[in-house]
Amino acid sequence: MRDDEDRLPTPLANALPMLRELPELRAEWRADVLREAASPVPVRRVSLSVPWAIAAGLVCAMAGGGAALLATRDRVSATAMASTQAAASVTLPVRFAVVAPKAGQVSIVGDFNHWNPTTLPMRRSADGRTWEVEVRLPVGRYSYAFLIDGSLALDPTAPRGSGDDFGEPNSVLMVRGS
Amino acid sequence: MRLAPWTVVLSAILNGAVGAQAAPRERISPATQVTLDRLIDSARVAGLPTTPLVDKVAEGTLKGADDERIVRAVRTLVRELGSARAALGPSADAAVLGAAASALHAGVSESDLQHMARAGGDAPRAALASALVTLVDLVAKQVTVASATHAIDDLLNHRANEGQFAALRADVGRDIAAGRSPEQSLVSRTTAQLRALDPASLDVMPRRPPADP
Fold first, then answer.
1. A40-79 residues touching B, CB cutoff 8 A
2. pTM of the entire structure?
3. Which chain A residues are within 8 Å of B98, Cβ to Cβ?
4. Does residue A171 lie within any of the structural domains?
């Protein structure tokens, strides 16, 4: 007898050996269980009259056609979106440079950094005259400008955009994949 | 209240712009933000790219534009993107749409835009985008819209590529810097490009733009 069984009431302690015995598994019980497991699941059959069958068929055909149309449109939209997302995930190095020998602080602002003058400061190159920065950009079209000591300046090497929205034109950059 | 994604981006942009600018700027008012949200949402529903609209707000903020001017610029861009979409079809990507919207803003008509898109034919969309960027650049260099449109249309018809459009921009820019008239430069440079594209034809000449009224 185990130590913890000393604390049990006597009738329960006396019944424990019997409770520990596993019941005998009768052969006919085992055979019944195996037979039920092996038998096929009965199929519930539904029968429709001909008109109802035709109506059901038309509804299914229309639903299928609508689903196909939606799937096609969604596939086109998904393809365009996937292509846009794929293009956005590929970045290409772009080097910006501007000659500003007398400038004290130069940065670049544009669509690629939400026109924030602090996120892309440019570094003065070894020649002391040129400011440059290299950024990686997804394929696309960007408007931008240089910010030289607080004043916006166009990139003389880039095409100009139609920038009369706010009185100052921008330069335009097209980043294209190979 | 669930915020639209561009609202979060717009707020981040404005917070960043206000904190970083050298000169003091006033924030866009909450009422203007609501107006901008509605404009951007309507563009999204119409299937137009919304990033250029958010960028336009950021640009206006940096340049010190007042709320009314920013709203007007965004509203105009929504309209131009919609026209560009109508002219170029659903397959035009955001970059081509942006270039087309810029061309419309520069004064190109929708019908001319459609014509250029057809002239490009099976050429890569990159060529059309480059063509439109070149057109806008030429107009910015004081070439008339009609002259620029005709030149670009001719080059697209002859399957000019991105490099040729870039060369045209550079050549016209150099000519103007040397004192030449933008219109004269465009005619001569376009002629040279067309002859290079179609050397078999000795009579290749750019179509003359219509005379000014």
1. 76
2. 0.70
3. 140-141
4. yes
